[in-house]
């Protein structure tokens, strides 16, 4: 079976990256992780990737005079690994329109909220302040508008009475580690594809029963 080549962009500890690496190590998974690239030389994710035998690279954003210059070098570095898909996994940089256009339809991101609600930062605090009963995470295609690309997959978790940001974030992160490998598999296998600006998913899967809380 031919597997899609995937590069992962990281900035921090890389827990979602690790979930993708673990999934790709399973027989039959339709993607292989060929590189991990960080904009921070001290990102903990680099050591995790190296222990897994994944090639790594660093493109330190502090060494470049502009976002365009950084993105050009990031693009050159990625191209050296010949990935077919790029996954953002805690990559804390806003990418330029030119970079996004070069990887259009081939770049996935995971966001800690049920988009289109709570775009941007501080999603868990805002969810608690709003009083929603369900929160969660979203894997979407990256477009120039932040957190607005077509949605590939989502996972919902309950918001419990007594939750604070830390407890809610931990529950969402557990869901992220399940969702991202599933979404990447859908995209890499071709079961999920873009049609008229929306993602459609092929397959015989029966929808689960509604998740109701409380």
TrEMBL record:
Instruction: Supply the Gene3D superfamilies for this chain.
Output: Formyl transferase, N-terminal domain (3.40.50.170)
Its annotated function is as follows: Catalyzes the transfer of a formyl group from 10-formyltetrahydrofolate to 5-phospho-ribosyl-glycinamide (GAR), producing 5-phospho-ribosyl-N-formylglycinamide (FGAR) and tetrahydrofolate.
| Protein name per the record | Phosphoribosylglycinamide formyltransferase
Write out the residues that bind N(1)-(5-phospho-beta-D-ribosyl)glycinamide: 14-16
Residue numbers binding (6R)-10-formyltetrahydrofolate: 67, 92-95, 109
> Keywords in UniProt for this one?
Purine biosynthesis, Transferase
Q: What is its EC number?
A: 2.1.2.2
- EC class, as a word, reads transferase
What GO biological process terms does the UniProt entry carry, in alphabetical order? 'de novo' IMP biosynthetic process
- Gene symbol here is purN
Active site annotated at which positions?
A: 111 (proton donor)
Domain spans labelled Formyl transferase N-terminal: 5-184
Is Metal-binding found in the keyword set? no
A Pfam family: Formyl_trans_N
NCBIfam families noted in UniProt: PurN
- What's the catalysed reaction? N(1)-(5-phospho-beta-D-ribosyl)glycinamide + (6R)-10-formyltetrahydrofolate = N(2)-formyl-N(1)-(5-phospho-beta-D-ribosyl)glycinamide + (6S)-5,6,7,8-tetrahydrofolate + H(+)
List the Gene Ontology MF annotations in alphabetical order.
phosphoribosylglycinamide formyltransferase activity
Q: Which family does it belong to?
A: Belongs to the GART family.
Pathway it acts in? Answer: Purine metabolism; IMP biosynthesis via de novo pathway; N(2)-formyl-N(1)-(5-phospho-D-ribosyl)glycinamide from N(1)-(5-phospho-D-ribosyl)glycinamide (10-formyl THF route): step 1/1
Which positions does the site annotation Raises pKa of active site His cover?
147
């Amino acid at each position: 079976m031919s597997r899609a080549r995937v590069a992962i962009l990281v900035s921090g500890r890389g827990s979602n990256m690790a979930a993708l690496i673990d999934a790709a190590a399973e027989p039959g998974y339709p993607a292989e992780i060929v590189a991990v690239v960080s904009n921070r030389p001290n990102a903990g994710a680099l050591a995790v990737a190296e222990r897994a035998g994944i090639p790594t690279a660093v493109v330190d954003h502090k060494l470049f005079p502009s976002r365009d210059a950084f993105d050009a070098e990031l693009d050159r570095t990625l191209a050296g690994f010949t990935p077919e898909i790029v996954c953002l996994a805690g990559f804390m940089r806003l990418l330029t329109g030119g970079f996004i256009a070069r990887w259009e339809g081939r770049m996935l991101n995971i966001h800690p909220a049920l988009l289109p609600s709570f775009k941007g930062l501080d999603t868990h605090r805002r969810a608690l302040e709003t009083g929603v009963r369900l929160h969660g995470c979203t894997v979407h295609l990256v477009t120039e508008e932040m957190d607005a690309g077509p949605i590939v997959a989502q996972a919902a978790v309950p918001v419990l009475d007594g939750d604070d940001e830390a407890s809610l974030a931990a529950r969402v992160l557990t869901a992220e580690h399940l969702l991202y490998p599933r979404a990447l598999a859908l995209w890499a296998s071709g079961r999920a594809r873009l049609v008229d600006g929306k993602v459609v998913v092929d397959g015989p899967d029966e929808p689960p029963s509604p998740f109701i809380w409380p």
